[in-house]
Amino acid sequence: MKKDLHPSNYRLVVFKDMSNDYSFLTKSCVETKETVTWEDGNDYPLVKLEISHTSHPFYTGKMKLVDTAGRIDKFRSRYGKK
């Protein structure tokens, strides 16, 4: 295998689904500036997600409208009546 192919800065990171406040802790090398205190009392870097397996319609079986940053309004203003 090639040397130095994979990043060496893996650490524990909290990913948080902003649509339903679901969080999970896993290893990642993603860069982030925010931190959060996890259930064990330690501080970990925080990555905010718009959608995860707990809110995605494919995994939940429910259609759920997630309007983040006014996507529907942007669509209507762009493709609405001219």
Description:
By secondary structure, the protein is of the alpha+beta class. The protein has a 4-stranded mixed sheet, with no helix packed on it. It starts with 10 loop residues before the first strand and ends with a helix.
Write the topology of this structure.
Blueprint: E1 11-17, E2 22-28, E3 35-37, E4 43-49, H1 57-60, H2 71-79
Parallel strand pairs: 1-4
Antiparallel strand pairs: 1-2, 3-4
What is the CA-atom radius of gyration, in angstroms?
A: 18 Å
Helix count equals 2
General shape: extended
Poorly predicted sequence stretches spanning 5 or more consecutive residues: none
Structural class comes to alpha+beta
**SSE run:** EEEEHH
Mean pLDDT metric: 81
Order of strands across the biggest sheet?
Answer: 2-1-4-3
C-alpha termini separation: 58 Å
Beta fraction: 25-35%
Helix content: 10-25%
What is the makeup of the main sheet? 4 strands, mixed
- The counted number of beta strands is 4
Task: Give descriptors for this structure.
4 strands; 82 residues; alpha+beta; 2 helices; four-stranded mixed beta sheet; extended
Describe what is shown at a glance:
The protein has helices at residues 57-60, 71-79; strands at 11-17, 22-28, 35-37, 43-49.
